[in-house]
Design a protein that fits this description.
The chain is built from eleven helices and no strands. By secondary structure, it is an all-alpha fold.
Length: 288
Protein backbone atom coordinates (compact mmCIF):
# COMPACT_ATOMS: atom_id res chain seq x y z
CA UNK A 1 0.00 0.00 0.00
CA UNK A 2 2.81 2.33 0.82
CA UNK A 3 4.65 1.48 -2.40
CA UNK A 4 1.46 2.11 -4.46
CA UNK A 5 0.96 5.50 -2.84
CA UNK A 6 4.53 6.45 -3.52
CA UNK A 7 4.26 5.42 -7.17
CA UNK A 8 1.01 7.41 -7.69
CA UNK A 9 2.50 10.51 -6.09
CA UNK A 10 5.54 10.32 -8.35
CA UNK A 11 3.44 9.95 -11.52
CA UNK A 12 1.24 12.87 -10.52
CA UNK A 13 4.25 15.10 -9.94
CA UNK A 14 5.72 14.16 -13.32
CA UNK A 15 2.46 14.92 -15.13
CA UNK A 16 2.13 18.23 -13.36
CA UNK A 17 5.65 19.28 -14.24
CA UNK A 18 5.16 18.23 -17.87
CA UNK A 19 1.91 20.21 -18.30
CA UNK A 20 2.98 23.40 -16.57
CA UNK A 21 5.36 24.74 -19.19
CA UNK A 22 5.51 28.59 -19.22
CA UNK A 23 4.76 30.48 -22.49
CA UNK A 24 7.83 31.88 -24.24
CA UNK A 25 8.18 35.16 -26.13
CA UNK A 26 8.23 34.93 -29.95
CA UNK A 27 11.64 35.24 -31.50
CA UNK A 28 12.65 38.84 -32.22
CA UNK A 29 10.19 40.35 -29.69
CA UNK A 30 11.72 42.73 -27.15
CA UNK A 31 11.21 41.92 -23.52
CA UNK A 32 8.66 43.99 -21.61
CA UNK A 33 10.21 47.23 -20.41
CA UNK A 34 13.12 47.11 -22.84
CA UNK A 35 13.78 50.36 -24.74
CA UNK A 36 13.88 50.27 -28.52
CA UNK A 37 16.86 51.92 -30.22
CA UNK A 38 16.08 55.39 -31.56
CA UNK A 39 16.01 55.57 -35.37
CA UNK A 40 18.85 57.41 -37.00
CA UNK A 41 18.03 61.02 -37.99
CA UNK A 42 17.30 61.69 -41.65
CA UNK A 43 20.50 62.93 -43.34
CA UNK A 44 20.66 66.53 -44.47
CA UNK A 45 21.44 65.42 -48.04
CA UNK A 46 18.18 63.47 -48.21
CA UNK A 47 16.19 66.40 -46.84
CA UNK A 48 17.79 68.67 -49.43
CA UNK A 49 16.89 66.27 -52.27
CA UNK A 50 13.28 66.16 -51.10
CA UNK A 51 13.01 69.94 -50.82
CA UNK A 52 14.59 70.34 -54.25
CA UNK A 53 12.07 67.93 -55.74
CA UNK A 54 9.24 69.93 -54.21
CA UNK A 55 10.39 72.96 -56.22
CA UNK A 56 10.09 71.05 -59.49
CA UNK A 57 7.26 68.56 -58.87
CA UNK A 58 4.35 70.91 -59.51
CA UNK A 59 3.67 72.36 -62.95
CA UNK A 60 3.81 75.93 -61.66
CA UNK A 61 7.07 75.27 -59.83
CA UNK A 62 8.67 73.71 -62.90
CA UNK A 63 7.79 76.60 -65.19
CA UNK A 64 8.80 79.14 -62.56
CA UNK A 65 12.24 77.56 -62.42
CA UNK A 66 12.40 77.23 -66.20
CA UNK A 67 11.43 80.88 -66.61
CA UNK A 68 14.84 81.91 -65.24
CA UNK A 69 16.61 80.45 -68.26
CA UNK A 70 13.87 81.47 -70.68
CA UNK A 71 13.87 85.12 -69.57
CA UNK A 72 17.67 85.21 -69.56
CA UNK A 73 17.69 84.10 -73.20
CA UNK A 74 14.96 86.61 -74.14
CA UNK A 75 16.75 89.47 -72.34
CA UNK A 76 20.00 88.57 -74.09
CA UNK A 77 18.30 88.42 -77.50
CA UNK A 78 16.56 91.76 -76.89
CA UNK A 79 19.89 93.40 -75.98
CA UNK A 80 21.51 92.12 -79.16
CA UNK A 81 18.62 93.26 -81.37
CA UNK A 82 17.73 96.63 -79.85
CA UNK A 83 20.85 97.95 -78.12
CA UNK A 84 23.18 100.22 -80.13
CA UNK A 85 26.65 99.00 -81.00
CA UNK A 86 28.22 101.02 -78.22
CA UNK A 87 25.98 99.28 -75.65
CA UNK A 88 27.02 95.74 -76.60
CA UNK A 89 29.00 95.18 -73.42
CA UNK A 90 28.81 92.56 -70.70
CA UNK A 91 27.38 95.12 -68.29
CA UNK A 92 24.41 95.66 -70.62
CA UNK A 93 23.68 91.93 -70.73
CA UNK A 94 24.14 91.56 -66.98
CA UNK A 95 21.71 94.43 -66.32
CA UNK A 96 19.13 93.04 -68.74
CA UNK A 97 19.28 89.58 -67.20
CA UNK A 98 19.44 90.86 -63.62
CA UNK A 99 15.98 92.43 -63.57
CA UNK A 100 13.93 89.23 -64.12
CA UNK A 101 16.28 87.38 -61.77
CA UNK A 102 15.61 89.91 -59.01
CA UNK A 103 11.86 89.29 -59.38
CA UNK A 104 11.75 85.51 -59.81
CA UNK A 105 14.26 84.34 -57.18
CA UNK A 106 12.41 85.83 -54.16
CA UNK A 107 9.14 84.30 -55.40
CA UNK A 108 10.84 80.90 -55.59
CA UNK A 109 11.98 81.31 -51.97
CA UNK A 110 8.50 82.38 -50.86
CA UNK A 111 6.78 79.40 -52.49
CA UNK A 112 9.34 76.94 -51.10
CA UNK A 113 8.21 77.91 -47.59
CA UNK A 114 4.52 78.72 -47.96
CA UNK A 115 3.78 75.50 -49.88
CA UNK A 116 3.82 73.62 -46.58
CA UNK A 117 0.80 75.65 -45.48
CA UNK A 118 -0.89 76.72 -48.74
CA UNK A 119 -0.82 73.18 -50.17
CA UNK A 120 -1.15 71.55 -46.73
CA UNK A 121 2.03 69.53 -46.98
CA UNK A 122 3.06 70.52 -43.48
CA UNK A 123 1.23 67.69 -41.72
CA UNK A 124 3.15 65.11 -43.74
CA UNK A 125 6.48 66.95 -43.70
CA UNK A 126 6.56 67.66 -39.98
CA UNK A 127 5.30 64.15 -39.14
CA UNK A 128 8.12 62.51 -41.06
CA UNK A 129 10.65 65.10 -39.80
CA UNK A 130 9.46 66.31 -36.37
CA UNK A 131 12.38 68.75 -36.12
CA UNK A 132 10.81 71.72 -37.88
CA UNK A 133 13.97 73.77 -37.55
CA UNK A 134 15.90 71.29 -39.72
CA UNK A 135 13.21 71.49 -42.39
CA UNK A 136 13.18 75.29 -42.45
CA UNK A 137 16.95 75.66 -42.64
CA UNK A 138 17.14 72.97 -45.31
CA UNK A 139 14.65 74.96 -47.35
CA UNK A 140 16.85 78.04 -46.95
CA UNK A 141 19.99 76.17 -48.04
CA UNK A 142 18.24 74.68 -51.07
CA UNK A 143 16.79 78.07 -52.07
CA UNK A 144 20.22 79.71 -51.87
CA UNK A 145 21.74 76.84 -53.85
CA UNK A 146 19.09 77.20 -56.56
CA UNK A 147 19.74 80.95 -56.66
CA UNK A 148 23.50 80.52 -57.08
CA UNK A 149 23.11 77.90 -59.83
CA UNK A 150 20.51 80.06 -61.60
CA UNK A 151 22.80 83.09 -61.51
CA UNK A 152 25.70 81.06 -62.88
CA UNK A 153 23.49 79.88 -65.75
CA UNK A 154 22.25 83.44 -66.39
CA UNK A 155 25.80 84.82 -66.30
CA UNK A 156 26.88 82.17 -68.80
CA UNK A 157 24.00 83.10 -71.11
CA UNK A 158 25.05 86.76 -70.83
CA UNK A 159 28.63 85.79 -71.72
CA UNK A 160 27.46 83.98 -74.84
CA UNK A 161 25.26 86.96 -75.71
CA UNK A 162 28.18 89.35 -75.40
CA UNK A 163 30.33 87.18 -77.67
CA UNK A 164 27.52 86.72 -80.19
CA UNK A 165 26.57 90.42 -80.19
CA UNK A 166 30.18 91.49 -80.69
CA UNK A 167 30.58 89.04 -83.56
CA UNK A 168 27.43 90.28 -85.28
CA UNK A 169 28.52 93.92 -84.93
CA UNK A 170 32.09 93.17 -85.93
CA UNK A 171 33.55 94.63 -82.73
CA UNK A 172 35.70 93.27 -79.95
CA UNK A 173 33.80 91.98 -76.91
CA UNK A 174 33.85 94.37 -73.96
CA UNK A 175 34.17 92.83 -70.49
CA UNK A 176 33.44 95.81 -68.25
CA UNK A 177 32.29 93.91 -65.15
CA UNK A 178 35.07 92.87 -62.77
CA UNK A 179 35.07 89.67 -60.75
CA UNK A 180 34.48 91.66 -57.55
CA UNK A 181 31.50 93.47 -59.06
CA UNK A 182 30.06 90.17 -60.32
CA UNK A 183 30.40 88.64 -56.86
CA UNK A 184 28.60 91.65 -55.34
CA UNK A 185 25.78 91.24 -57.88
CA UNK A 186 25.48 87.60 -56.83
CA UNK A 187 25.32 88.69 -53.18
CA UNK A 188 22.61 91.27 -53.94
CA UNK A 189 20.45 88.62 -55.61
CA UNK A 190 20.97 86.19 -52.74
CA UNK A 191 19.94 88.89 -50.24
CA UNK A 192 16.82 89.56 -52.31
CA UNK A 193 16.00 85.85 -52.25
CA UNK A 194 16.50 85.73 -48.47
CA UNK A 195 14.07 88.64 -48.08
CA UNK A 196 11.50 86.55 -49.93
CA UNK A 197 12.32 83.59 -47.69
CA UNK A 198 11.86 85.80 -44.62
CA UNK A 199 8.44 86.95 -45.79
CA UNK A 200 7.44 83.35 -46.49
CA UNK A 201 8.42 82.27 -42.98
CA UNK A 202 6.70 85.22 -41.31
CA UNK A 203 3.45 85.23 -43.34
CA UNK A 204 3.23 81.53 -44.39
CA UNK A 205 0.72 82.20 -47.15
CA UNK A 206 1.72 82.46 -50.81
CA UNK A 207 -0.40 85.33 -52.12
CA UNK A 208 0.00 87.73 -49.15
CA UNK A 209 3.76 87.03 -48.99
CA UNK A 210 4.21 87.78 -52.72
CA UNK A 211 2.21 91.00 -52.38
CA UNK A 212 4.27 91.96 -49.33
CA UNK A 213 7.47 91.42 -51.30
CA UNK A 214 6.38 93.77 -54.09
CA UNK A 215 5.35 96.36 -51.50
CA UNK A 216 8.75 96.00 -49.86
CA UNK A 217 10.79 96.05 -53.08
CA UNK A 218 8.79 98.57 -55.16
CA UNK A 219 6.56 100.78 -53.00
CA UNK A 220 8.69 101.20 -49.88
CA UNK A 221 11.85 102.41 -51.72
CA UNK A 222 9.74 105.01 -53.54
CA UNK A 223 8.25 106.33 -50.31
CA UNK A 224 11.59 106.42 -48.50
CA UNK A 225 13.29 108.00 -51.53
CA UNK A 226 10.72 110.81 -51.60
CA UNK A 227 11.15 111.32 -47.86
CA UNK A 228 14.93 111.58 -48.30
CA UNK A 229 14.51 114.03 -51.19
CA UNK A 230 12.37 116.46 -49.14
CA UNK A 231 13.78 115.93 -45.64
CA UNK A 232 17.49 116.56 -45.17
CA UNK A 233 17.58 114.82 -41.80
CA UNK A 234 16.37 111.56 -43.38
CA UNK A 235 18.75 111.78 -46.35
CA UNK A 236 21.67 111.19 -43.99
CA UNK A 237 19.77 108.53 -42.06
CA UNK A 238 18.45 106.54 -45.04
CA UNK A 239 21.56 104.37 -45.65
CA UNK A 240 21.33 103.18 -42.02
CA UNK A 241 17.62 102.28 -42.03
CA UNK A 242 16.75 101.40 -45.64
CA UNK A 243 17.89 97.88 -46.61
CA UNK A 244 17.01 98.37 -50.29
CA UNK A 245 19.05 101.57 -50.43
CA UNK A 246 22.02 99.91 -48.72
CA UNK A 247 21.94 97.07 -51.26
CA UNK A 248 22.24 99.44 -54.22
CA UNK A 249 25.90 99.97 -53.28
CA UNK A 250 26.51 96.31 -54.17
CA UNK A 251 26.11 97.21 -57.84
CA UNK A 252 29.09 99.59 -57.68
CA UNK A 253 32.57 98.38 -58.48
CA UNK A 254 33.84 98.65 -54.92
CA UNK A 255 32.13 99.30 -51.60
CA UNK A 256 33.61 101.30 -48.77
CA UNK A 257 33.83 100.08 -45.21
CA UNK A 258 31.01 102.41 -44.21
CA UNK A 259 28.76 100.98 -46.93
CA UNK A 260 29.43 97.43 -45.73
CA UNK A 261 28.57 98.53 -42.19
CA UNK A 262 25.32 100.12 -43.39
CA UNK A 263 24.43 96.92 -45.26
CA UNK A 264 25.10 94.85 -42.13
CA UNK A 265 23.05 97.12 -39.84
CA UNK A 266 20.03 97.30 -42.13
CA UNK A 267 20.31 93.56 -42.86
CA UNK A 268 20.02 92.76 -39.17
CA UNK A 269 16.94 95.00 -38.81
CA UNK A 270 15.12 93.97 -41.99
CA UNK A 271 16.29 90.39 -42.48
CA UNK A 272 17.84 88.67 -39.47
CA UNK A 273 15.39 89.77 -36.77
CA UNK A 274 12.18 89.10 -38.80
CA UNK A 275 13.56 85.72 -39.92
CA UNK A 276 14.30 84.72 -36.33
CA UNK A 277 10.79 85.76 -35.33
CA UNK A 278 9.24 83.82 -38.22
CA UNK A 279 11.23 80.66 -37.41
CA UNK A 280 10.21 80.98 -33.74
CA UNK A 281 6.54 81.11 -34.82
CA UNK A 282 6.96 78.10 -37.10
CA UNK A 283 8.50 76.08 -34.29
CA UNK A 284 5.67 76.87 -31.87
CA UNK A 285 2.57 77.15 -34.04
CA UNK A 286 0.04 74.42 -34.69
CA UNK A 287 0.13 72.87 -38.15
CA UNK A 288 -3.36 72.52 -39.62
Amino acid sequence: MTALTTRLAGSTGSAGSAGSTEPTEPAGTAAPGATRPAPAPIPLARLARVELRKMFDTRSGFWLMASIGILAVLATAATIVFAPDSAITYESFASAIGFPMAVILPIIAILSVTGEWSQRNGLTTFTLVPSRGRVIWTKALVAVGVAVVSMVVAASIGTLGNLLGSTINGTDPVWDVSAVALAQIFLANVLGLLVGFMLGVVIRSSAPAIVAYFVYSALLPTVLGMLAAFQDWFADLQPWVDFNYAQTALFDDAMTGEQWTQLAVTGVVWLVVPTAYGVWRVLRSEVK
